[in-house]
Amino acid sequence: MQRGIYYLAAAAKSFPSCQHKYGWTQRRSGDTLLQADCNNFVPSKPRDQKACSTCVSQSVATAMQMAAAAALEKDVDSWEVNAASMYYCTDGGRSCSTGYEIQQNLHEVIDKAPELIRPSSCTRKAAPKLADPASEPNVNPWLPVCRAAQQACRNATNRQQPWLKCSYTSLSTFWEIQRWIRNHGAVVTRITIYDDFNVQINKKAKLVPGEGWPAYRFNKTAKPLYGHAAVIVGYDNDNFTWTLLNSWGSGTDTSNSRSKGITADGRFRIQMGLAGVGTPDQTYGVTCAPLPGSEYDRDGVRQFYDYKRRLPVEFINPAEHRLDLDVPCFKYKLQGHDTIAAVVDGFRLTMEEFVLKQQTTQQQGGPKLTDGSPWSYENVTYKLGDNSDAELLDKMLKVADDVFKTKNQAPYQPYIQCWHYDSAGVQRNTTCDSRTGASTCLQYGNGTVGCALHYANIAVPETLTGSGDNAVIVCNITHPYFENPRDSQPRALKRLGLIEEDTEYCHQESFPTCKHQSPRRHIGCNRDKYVTYIWNTPVTQNENILTGTLPFSWPQFSKLSELAISHNKLEGQVPLSWTGFERLRVLDLHNNLKLSGCVPIPPQNHALLNYNSTNTLITGSCPTQRLEVEAQQRRALDLLPAVFYADTESNASSWQLYMTQTLKQYPTLSGLYGMKSLKSLDLSDNDLTSTLPASFGTAAWSKYVQNINMHANERLSGTVPSTWSALNAKEIDLEMTNITGCVPDQLINAVEPFHKFFRCSRNNTELLALKALKGLFEDDGSTLQSWQEDPSDFVPDPLQGAPPGPPPYWCRKWVGVTCDQSNQVSGLAFDGLAINSTLAGLLELLQQLPALQSLSLSGCSIAGALPAELSSLANLRHLDLSSNPGLAGTLHAALAGLSFLQTLDVSGCGVAGTLPAAFAALQQLREFRAANSSISGQLPGSWGLLQNLQVLDMSNAQLTGSIPAAWFDSAARKAEARALLLGIQNSTPAQLQQQSTMAAVASAAMSQAVAPLPPPPLSLAAVHALQQAAAASSRPGMAIGLTQLQELRLAGNDLNGSISGIELLGALRVLELSGNSLGGQLPLQLAMLSKLQELRLRSTNLTGPLPDSFARLSQLQALDLAGNNITGTLPEIWVGLTQLRTMDLASNMLSGTLPLLWGRLGAPTHSLQLLLLGDNPCMEPAALASSIQQSGILSSGRVRVEVSGAASKECMMRPP
C-alpha cells in the first residue's frame, strides 16, 4: 500500500497515447524519445477480430508487439505479432467461436509453445488464412494451416530459438498497471461489455479519436452482455479514466462492418473501476525482447528490460568521492520530462527507501522543510467507516506503526480517533494507538459512529524540474554512469590499479613510436581528455604489476583505440561486456597466465583489427549466443555443493574452491547441467561425499557424455541412481568408492569394477522379499493371482554395446508392483488386502527394497503402533496408510528423516498424539492428510516453513488452538524459525525426539498397551533439513508462509481465534473450516484469495454482513456460510460470481429479499444450480418468495432455490 501511494504521487498524473501525434521521425538526439510523458508504442492501425472470438489473442499479440517496441525503442508497426497463430495453433484446437481466458492463452503460448509468437510477415504468403480474420469462420480444420505456418516461419521462429522471448505477470493494483504501461507499453485486461456500450460510443464516434470522445461511464440500468479483452495503453488520474485499445478495427476503415462501439483509432476511454477493467487475475503485463544471438543481440550483452535512457549521476562531494570506489550515494538532477517515478525505475531502486533517503537528506543538510514542500511530512486522515472490530483495528495500528513511525521515522505515533454522541447529542471523541489498544476507542460499543486513522506520511512530488533544487540522492547503484569523462575515467583506471590519486594522468602527446624506450605505464588522451590508449607492460616482477580481474565497465572508454596490458598477473575471464568497445583496434593481453575466457569481438567492422592472447588461457574469440555463459557459471558454483552434499562446512568450502579453480582453468565450462557438448566428466581423486547425484540422469548432457570418472572418492556411498539409466556413457569408473548394490541394466557393461556390481533385473534379494510379502496378505482372488514365478522368463546379460533386454517378469506381470528405470522395485500397492502382520513385521521385508518410492496400504486392516522405523525407507516419496482404524500410536518425529517424502496419508487411522514440529524438515512434502484421526493439540507454527505443501487435510480430528500466524505472517514465521534453530543448536538429535517419545508412551498407557521402545532419534539428514528450512526463512525476498498451499481442510475440530491473515495464502483453492469455534466478523479480506473455488465456513459463530468484496472471487464454485449469525442483506454485487454453483446461506440472521439483479444468476452466462436461504428468521417469507419470482432466477429451470416456511430461531438482528 505504501509503495502504491508513493508511486501514484511520483508518477505523471496522465499518460495518454501520442503515437498518432508524434511520428518516429521526430526524435530527440540520443536514446530519449521525443515525448516521455505519453505512450509512443501504440500501433498506428488497430487490429480487427471481425466475427470471431479471438479478442484475448488479439490483445495478447498487441501487448507483445508494444512490449518489443518499447524494449528496443523501435517502430512499433515493424513488430506486428500474428494473433491467429496464438489462438488456432495452440493445444486444444480452437474454433472461431471458442474463446480464451487471458492467463490460459499466455500460459499456452509463452510457457508451452513460444514458437507460436510469429511475425505477421512470415504468415501472409504461406498461411494467408492466419493473416485474414475475415476468412477465419470458414476454416475447418486449422491443423494444416498451422503446419504450413510452422514451415513458413521456421527460420524466423522455432521452439529452440523463438522470435521473441516473452514473460507475463499478474497485476493487482492501479499503480502497478500504470507503472507497467509507462515502462513496457500495454497491459492486457478483461472487460465486460454492457448493453449500453454501443449507445455511449455511438455512430458519431467513428470519426473521432478515442481520447477525444467522452469516457464510457457508469449506468446502473445497463446489463452485461459478454466478456471481452482489450489492452490498456494510457490513463488519466485527474479524470479517473483508462485508455483502452480495442480489437474491433477503426471507424475510418470503410470495410469495417461495425457502425457502433468503435472510434477513428480503435481506442476508447472508460471510467476506472467499471466493467472489470484492471481486475486482479484478469489483468496481465507482458514483456518481450529478442533472444541473444539474434540480429538485435548477436553477442548476448544487451539488456532490453532496463530503463532505456542511461541516467547520469554526479558526485555529492567530488573532491572526496571521485576515486572512492565504495561511495554508496550519488546526486542526480531531474531533466525534461523526468518524474520521480521514472527516476526510481531508471535506477532500479526501491521507492520506499528512495523517499526516506530524500527526507533524511533534507532534514540533515538541506533548508528547513515547510508544510507542503517536497519530502516534508504531511498529516493524513483515512476514514475507516463503521468498523467495530477491535482485533482488525489493532492490526491496522501495528502495521501503521511499522510503516510510518518505524520505517518512515514520522514525528508522531499513528493513532485512531473514533466518535460517538452522548445523551445530549454532543459528539465525543476517543483516541487510541498501538500502546493503548483499539478497545479504548471502542469503549462505547454500538454507540460508536465512525473512526479514522491519523498518521504522518512523506509528501512525494511528481517532479522537481523547474524548482530551486531539482536534485535527488540515489544510492546503491551497481554501475553509475557519468557524462563527464573527468569523473568516470579516473574511477575505471583506479579499479584496475593504474592510478592511485586523482592527479594529471593524461599524456596528450602521440603514442611513443618505440615502446621499449618509453615508460612501462602510459595513458594517452585526446584534446577533450578522453582516454585513447592504455599501456601497462612491466618488464620486472616489481614494476607496476596489475592484478585482479578485468573491469566490466571499461567500454565506457568510448574513444579507446589501443589497450596493451601484457606481462601482468590478471586473472578471471574477459568480460562479455567488452563487446561494447566502439573504437578498440588493438588488444594486447599476452603473458597473463591466469587470464581466461574468450575475446568478445565488437560488432563494428572497423574495430579490433588485432588481438594477442598468447600465454593465457583465453580460447579465442567469443561465439554468439553467449549471454548466459557467466550466469551459468555462477549457478554451477552455487548448485554443485548441494549436489554432492557435504556433511561439514569445510567439505562444502573445499568443493566450492575446487569448482572455482576448475572454471578458471576451463572457461568453456558454462554450467554443469546446461552443457550439451559435455563428453567427459572427471571428478576423480577428490574428497566428494554423500551419494551420486540422481540429477546427472536428467542433465542436458546425459545423452552425450561418454566417460564419468569418480575414481578414488572413498566417501561416496549409496547406490547408482535409477535415473542414470538414461546415460549413454561407455565407461563409469567407481573404483575405490563405497558405491554398492545393483546397476541399471543399461549400464552393466559400462560400470567399473565390473565384479563389484550386479544387474538390477537379477536382484534375487528383491524377488525373495516380494515372495515373502505375498505370504503376509490374504489374497482377494485377483490381485495376488498374478504373483507367480516364471523361471522360463529369463533375460540374459546384454552383450557389450547391445541395448538391455526387457525388465524382469515381476516388474512386468505382477499386479501392484512397479519398477524404476533400473528395474528395481519402486512401488507397491496392496490396497484393500487384509494383512496378517503388524506394520513393524512388514517393514523388515520392505527394507530389502532400497529403491522403494511409493507404498500404498490403504484399507489393509493394519493393527498395532505406527513404527518410527519407517524412516529407514530413505527413498520413500508416497506413503498411504489410510483407512486402517486399528493403526495406533503417534506420528513420530523420526519420520522427518524421510527427506524425499511428497505425500503422507493417515486418514481414517487410530493415530493419536500431536503433530511433530520436526516435520518442518519435510521440504518436499506436498500433501498431508490425517482426516478422521485422533490427532490432537495445536497446529505447529514450524509447518509454516513447508514451502511446497499444497494440500493439508485434517478434517474431523481433535485439534485445538488457532491457525498459527507463522503460516502466513513473515515476522511470526521468522520467530518460529529462530526458535527451531535454537532448539537444534541446544539439543542432541535424541533430545529432539524426546517429546514424540513421551507422547507415544502416554498414548500406549491410555490404551493399556505395553509401552513401545523409544523410537530412533532424528537422522542427521532430518536435522540438516530443519536447519536449512529455518535458515532459509530469514533470507531477503523469501516467500511468506505456505505460499503453495491450495487446499486447507480443517473442518470438525475445535479451533478458535481469528483467521485474519489467511488471505495471504494466495494459492488457496479450497478453504474448509466448518464446525470450529472461530467467531468474529466474516473477514472481508478473504476476497483477496482470487483463486478460491470452495469456501466452507458453516457453523463457525461468524457475525457481521456479507462482504461486497466477495464479488472479486471470480473462480468461486461453492460457498457454505450456513449456521452462523451473519446479518444484513444479500449483496447485489454478488451477481458477478459467474462460476458459483452452490450457495448455502441458511440458518443465519439475514434480512431483506432477493435482489432483483440476482435473477441473472439463472442465466446461461452463470453456473448457479442451488441456492439455500432457509431458516433466516429476519427474512419475511412472503416478501422473499415474491422477490424470487420477480427476479426470474427460476425461469431457466437450472437453479433450485430452497426457502423454509418456519424458522427454528427468533430474529435477533439489531433494530435500525
Shape: globular
Total strands: the figure is 50
User: Strand order of the main beta sheet, please?
Assistant: 31-32-33-35-37-38-40-42-43-44-45-47-49-50
How many DSSP helices? 22
Largest sheet: 14 strands, mixed
Provide the structure class.
alpha/beta
Distance between the termini: 35 Å
Low-confidence stretches: 20-34, 509-519, 624-656, 658-671, 988-1016
Our Rg estimate from Cα atoms comes to: 35 Å
Mean pLDDT: 80
The amount of helix comes to 10-25%
Q: What share of residues are in beta strands? A: 15-25%
Quick synopsis:
The chain has about 1200 residues and is an alpha/beta fold. The protein is about 20% helix and about 15% strand.
Question: Layout of SSEs?
Answer:
Elements (H helix, E strand, L loop, with lengths): L1 H9 L3 E2 L39 H18 L10 H6 L13 H11 L30 H10 L12 E6 L3 H11 L2 E8 L2 H4 L23 E13 L4 E5 L21 E5 L11 E7 L28 H4 L7 E5 L6 H7 L4 H15 L11 E9 L4 H18 L7 E7 L5 E6 L15 E11 L12 E5 L9 H11 L25 E5 L5 E6 L10 E2 L13 E3 L4 E5 L12 E3 L5 E3 L13 E3 L16 H15 L5 H17 L14 E3 L7 E2 L15 E3 L6 E3 L12 E3 L4 E2 L2 E2 L7 E2 L5 E2 L4 H11 L34 H5 L3 E3 L5 E5 L9 H8 L7 E3 L7 E2 L12 E3 L6 E2 L14 E3 L21 E3 L6 E3 L12 E3 L4 E3 L9 H16 L3 H4 L1 H13 L13 H13 L14 E3 L20 E3 L21 E3 L21 E3 L6 E2 L13 E3 L4 E2 L19 E3 L8 H11 L8 E3 L14
Parallel strand pairs: 15-17, 16-18, 17-19, 18-20, 19-21, 22-24, 23-25, 24-26, 25-27, 26-29, 28-30, 32-33, 33-35, 34-36, 35-37, 37-38, 38-40, 39-41, 40-42, 42-43, 43-44, 44-45, 45-47, 46-48, 47-49, 49-50
Antiparallel strand pairs: 1-4, 2-7, 3-4, 3-7, 4-5, 5-6, 8-13, 9-12, 10-11, 10-12, 14-15, 31-32
Helix pairs in contact: 1-6, 13-14, 18-21
